[in-house]
């Protein structure tokens, strides 16, 4: 099955038009024609079976044949991860986290961050492509980048964890995670969180966790955290 994305679709829609870029891909690349069936999600859990009624390269039109909704999991998983020095490594993390299963992602800028800007539009496209490739019907929420200090000023519910490299006493993440509990995990930049940032996170209720004995790159640490939470909630 191949999955397409149309964020404006809902259960009240019967006829719709794909955006120009998606229309071109459907008609010219995939060579779809009138009468062909396509599976489409709106990124909010709905899966639509649709039929092409006009295969125009710039305005491919379709009608909804049926619709069903997949229920969201019981827990809400929020990853706050510092952007990596090179864009492709952060995009790799976003792609894999979407495939494995994450609900919300916030890029955080820290004292030791080497990258202070991100192109959110580009990151959104990476997430959308990963959602379609992995046949998921929920699009992870990508928040605007924020300084860690500002992120910590906000209220965060559920289990709160920070993974860092200092020698504080830590418990393995897999022993901290509980099934069906909301969870937020902080992952720092290549230079790690500063001591001040770690103490501020502690003051806000974040507990230190270990992701294993090895020292991991930012994107690897984030992926290990995603995998651990996914395994605990699907075990």
UniProtKB/TrEMBL annotation:
It comes from the Bacteria. Residues 76-229 form the Ribosomal RNA small subunit methyltransferase E methyltransferase domain. Its EC number is 2.1.1.193. One of its GO terms (biological process) is rRNA base methylation. GO terms for molecular function: rRNA (uridine-N3-)-methyltransferase activity. Its main location: cytoplasm. Gene3D superfamilies: 3.40.1280.10, Hypothetical PUA domain-like, domain 1. Keywords: Cytoplasm, Methyltransferase, rRNA processing, S-adenosyl-L-methionine, Transferase. Transmembrane segments: none annotated. Pfam families: Methyltrans_RNA (PF04452), PUA_4 (PF20260). GO terms for cellular component: cytoplasm. The keyword rRNA processing applies. Residues 19-64 form the Ribosomal RNA small subunit methyltransferase E PUA-like domain. It is found in: Cytoplasm. It catalyses: uridine(1498) in 16S rRNA + S-adenosyl-L-methionine = N(3)-methyluridine(1498) in 16S rRNA + S-adenosyl-L-homocysteine + H(+). PANTHER family: 16S RRNA (URACIL(1498)-N(3))-METHYLTRANSFERASE, RIBOSOMAL RNA SMALL SUBUNIT METHYLTRANSFERASE E. Specifically methylates the N3 position of the uracil ring of uridine 1498 (m3U1498) in 16S rRNA. Acts on the fully assembled 30S ribosomal subunit. Belongs to the RNA methyltransferase RsmE family. This is Ribosomal RNA small subunit methyltransferase E. The lineage of its organism: Bacteria, Pseudomonadati, Bacteroidota, Flavobacteriia, Flavobacteriales.
